[in-house]
Write a structure and sequence with these properties.
The complex is a heterodimer of chains A (53) and B (283). Chain A is mainly beta and 53 residues long. In chain A, 0% of the residues lie in helices and 32% in strands. The relative contact order of chain A is 0.27. Chain B is 35% helix and 26% strand. Chain B contains 9 helices and 13 strands. In chain B, strand 3 (53-57), helix 2 and strand 4 form a beta-alpha-beta unit. In chain B, helix 1 crosses helix 9. The chains are: A mainly beta (53), B alpha+beta (283). Chain A binds chain B through residues 17-21, 32-33, 44-45, 48-53, and chain B through 11-15, 18-19, 22, 34, 36, 38, 59-62, 132, 134-137, 139, 162, 164, 237, 253-257.
């Protein structure tokens, strides 16, 4: 478990993998898994102009 | 399955799609090497330790393309390869290729200056749609209803200042039902089709369109395979609209998302993607 860097809410690691992007359940900020062990998250990268499918 | 064979997974971020790919690979006993598009460097000599094939899932068209070019230089195949990314990642190139192959597609005019863009809109007629040549999820697309809005939109695009927005891709506004179609192709296989429905004119799932399974008719299957083949084939999502003159292909997506399609159709998408990448790597 770690803290959301935006709102300090608890963030559970569950079965998350390195690089996984998910929203903070409290504030909705998109977070990215920075490390699995120990579990660490950072704000997910912002969408760039050339991002897409 | 492993036998030293390794599948590279090249990503910007890990979304449900990439997670499903990791799980599908694990279920098949395929060893995966994670490659972060923000961390790798590419020299001119082939580095050691490269995987046999790389599944390119970068969300950045630029990163995906240059990585695929470097990997090709090293003799490593990518899914999708650089040729496919070049064609399908650029709407101008896609339209040219679809037209060359006789795949029905909306009427399109390309302009290279703001002045020419206004002429292009007049040539296409109102309403028209202005799209960036690169990019997706409906971002910065504009419906142009009249000459006055054309001038404003072109001026705004000019003000954005980037090279991408100096190319004006103008397409007829297709009077379609409140939905479009997406067909998922992996190699020679069509895995499923869905409707994307929205009361708004943009029907991207990323914009909140609702999705439901669509019947995979022979016509839809054949057209999707022809469109995929036109850009070089691989893992592709073909987007179509039901126009008054029949189905038209408006986009072929080379790094497609598939969470919504999997949920709508119940089809396994990640498994066949991994199987196809392994097959390409063993060729």
């Amino acid at each position: 478990m770690t803290e959301c860097p935006e709102c300090a809410a608890s963030v559970e690691s569950h079965d998350k993998v390195l690089g996984e992007v998910f929203p903070c359940t409290d504030c909705g900020t998109e977070l990215e898994v920075q490390a699995v062990e120990p579990f660490a998250v950072q704000p997910a990268p912002k969408e760039a102009e050339d991002w897409g499918e | 399955m492993s036998n030293g064979f390794r599948l590279g997974l090249f990503t910007t971020i890990v979304r449900p799609e990439e997670k499903a790919i990791l799980q599908a690979a694990e279920a098949r006993g395929v060893e995966v090497v994670r490659l972060d598009d923000g961390e790798l460097t590419f020299g001119l000599e082939r580095p050691s330790g490269l995987p046999e094939v790389v599944l390119n899932r970068s969300v950045s068209h630029t990163r995906a393309l240059y990585a695929a070019l470097c990997l090709e230089h090293y003799g490593v195949r990518s899914v999708n390869g650089p040729g496919v990314l070049e064609l399908a990642g650029d709407k101008v190139r896609t339209s040219l290729r679809l037209a060359e192959r006789g795949v029905p597609t909306p009427r399109t005019v390309v302009a290279l200056s703001p002045e020419a863009a206004l002429k292009a809109v007049e040539e296409v007629g109102y309403p028209a749609v202005l799209k960036p040549a690169v990019g997706s999820w409906g971002r910065l697309m504009a419906k142009v209803d009249d000459a006055s809005s054309a001038e404003q939109i072109v001026e705004h695009k000019e003000a954005l200042g980037s090279a991408v927005h100096s190319v004006f891709y103008v397409q007829e506004f297709v009077p379609k039902p409140d939905r479009d179609l997406r067909v998922f192709v992996v190699g020679p296989r069509v895995l499923g089709a869905m409707y994307r429905r929205s009361a708004a004119w943009r029907t991207n799932a990323a914009r909140g369109a609702t999705t439901e399974a669509a019947p995979l008719t022979d016509e839809l299957r054949e057209l999707a395979l022809r469109a995929a083949d036109a850009v070089g084939g691989g893992v592709l999502a073909v987007d179509l609209m039901e126009s008054p003159r029949g189905l038209v292909v408006h986009e072929v997506n080379p790094t497609p998302e598939f969470k919504a399609l999997g949920a709508a159709t119940g089809a396994d998408i990640a498994g066949p993607i991994v199987d196809y990448a392994v097959e390409v790597g063993r060729r």
